Amino acid sequence: MTPVRDVVAKYRWTFSGMVAWTLQRVTGVLLLFYLLLHVHTIGKLSQGPAAFNEAIATFRSPLFTCLEIGLLGVVVLHAFNGIRITLLDLGLGGGRQRQLFWTLTVGLGLVVFLAGAIPIFLFAVLKAG
Amino acid sequence: MDLDERMTVLDALIRVQREVDGSIGFRCSCRVGMCGTCAAHVNRIPRLLCSTLVRTLDSDVVTVEPLPHYPVIKDLAVSLAPFFAQWRRARPAFRPTHADAPTLAVIGKHSRFRQLSATKRDCITCGACYAACSITGMNARYLGPAAINKALLRVLDPRDAGGADRRQVLDHSDGVWRCHTQFNCTAVCPRHIDLTDSIVRLKRALVRPAKGLTV
After folding, report:
1. Smaller CB count within 10 Å for chain B: N or C?
2. Does domain B81-207 sit in CATH 3.40.50.2300?
3. Is residue B45 less than 8 Å (CB to CB) from chain A?
C-alpha cells in the first residue's frame, strides 16, 4: 500500500487542471454538508414554528455570518469551475483550460464572490452596530 | 555534483554513471527527444531526460526517480508493459476499408482528418502521460491518454474500418469515460499533444446518435 504522502506528492499540484479538479471535489463535498444542514433546518418546520425559529436563531451569530461568506465562496468556486468544465466538454475551450481556470474560475469567481461577500459583511456589521 | 548549465538531466546521469556509480540503471537511445525511451520523473514531473536542461528546472537539487504507475526493472528503468497492454486494447493498427483497392486513397490537404491529425500524431510512446494521469494510478484497467489518442487517429481516418471494435473499447467505463479531465497528461506531453482534447472529442462523438463513430 502506497503511503498517502507519496500519492499526494506524486501529482503536480501546480498544474491548474489538477488543482481545478481537486477544488471541484472538495467544494462538492462541502456543499453536500451544507445541504444536509439545510435539510435538517428546514425539517424543523415539521416540529412547529417555535422549533424552526430556535434553529434559525443559531445562524444569526457572527460565526455563521463568516460561514455564510465561506459558503458563498464555495458555491461560486464550484459553479464557475463547473461552467469551465462544461465549456471544455462541449469543445468550446479552444485548448485553453489553464487560461479558463485563471480567468473564469478564479478571476470572475473572485469578482462575484466579493460582490456578494462585501454586502453580507457590511450588513452584518451595521446590524450589530 | 556540480553541473554545467548547458547539461541535460541525461548528460548529468551519464556523468554520474561514469564518475560516481557505474551500476546505475537508466535507458536512453536517440538523445534528441524523438524516441521516448528516457522518460523519468524529474523533480516529480514526468519528462524526457534528454530534453530537460538542468538550468530550466530552476532548482539546486535535481531529483530523478522512475516513472510512477510502471513496474521498476532497475533504478530508473521501468517496464512499459502496462502502457502497451492498453495501447493494444485500443486497436492501434490500421484496418483498411478497401484492402484490395487498385488506387491509393487521397487525403485532401484541407480534410478534417489531415488538419486534426497533424496535432495528434506525434506521440513517441514515452509513457509520460500514463505516469502523470492520476486515474491510471488508481485503475490499471483504464486505457490511458496515449492509447485513446491513438484510437482517435484511427477513428478520424476515413480509410480505416475498425470503428465498431474500437467503439466497444472506448465506450466503456474503463475507456474514455474514466477520464476526469485533469489535463495532467496534456501538461507533461513532451510532444505537446492535447491528449485531454482527444479524449473529450471521443466522448462527444460517442454520445452523438449517429450510427458510425465520427469525430
Report:
1. N
2. no
3. yes
